[in-house]
């Protein structure tokens, strides 16, 4: 089942984004080649949105996967919507373009379709992605993110990025950008942790009021990566409410979790290195959840579980 125009949403700058994508963050324990093969499989299945980031250290493999599918005639580059992100150590305005240019070189792309601030927390510039002092604590940097945004706007003007957005921004941070004097381009999208245990309904309502899309990462919960989460956190896809709805509809719990977000007009990122799971994740356009099912999933928000430690 290939993507159709109906599987895209128009952003506030007029560009279109596919409503369902694949993430590329790859834990250290997983060979990078596994991500490369997953991207190729995802493209073959029909995924056209690929979510990446400089900090993931996987851009060369992602770029190779896309180029291979272009060469074999499966797709054209313009068929792929690729999201890149500026890492926290590059927030100083004079460093912004260099981060994007490094990503483009790694990917062998001329542009990214969407360029995000990966996280609002600025870190000391340097070779280390997570710079720490002698006491082991992170070394933070003081940067005006409005200046970072202006440098990103210059990247868009230069044709290096087609659209601009943010990630893990709360309402206060979004308002700061939206109220910035001389704002040239408003954010098209805010990528945040979002799933039935943390449905972000208040932030979603605010973003809608400002014509900003919400995009969900960790939409299926999260990989049990000790770098980011407490392993005692419940596994979303094992939730009995989610499981009961999936059983009733003869669907996988993952498909139901994705469909839940799509019906809220949220763009969804669903990562897997398993082809069968990728196929299941894509089979979400031929069924609907009832109002009762949506309410039952909404009620899971009472658990108020956040998987990502860094996400504020």
TrEMBL record:
TM ranges are: none
**Residues the record marks as active site:** 56
Where does the record place the NADP-dependent oxidoreductase domain?
A: 20-301
Supply the InterPro entries for this chain: AKR, Aldo/ket_reductase_CS, NAD(P)_OxRdtase_dom_sf, NADP_OxRdtase_dom
Give residues annotated as binding substrate: 118
Site positions (Lowers pKa of active site Tyr) are 85
Taken from the record, one Pfam family name reads Aldo_ket_red
One GO term in the molecular function aspect is: oxidoreductase activity
The UniProt similarity line reads: Belongs to the aldo/keto reductase family.
Among PANTHER family, the record links this protein to: ALDO/KETO REDUCTASE
Q: What is this protein called?
A: NADP-dependent oxidoreductase domain-containing protein
**Provenance organism:** Sphenodon punctatus
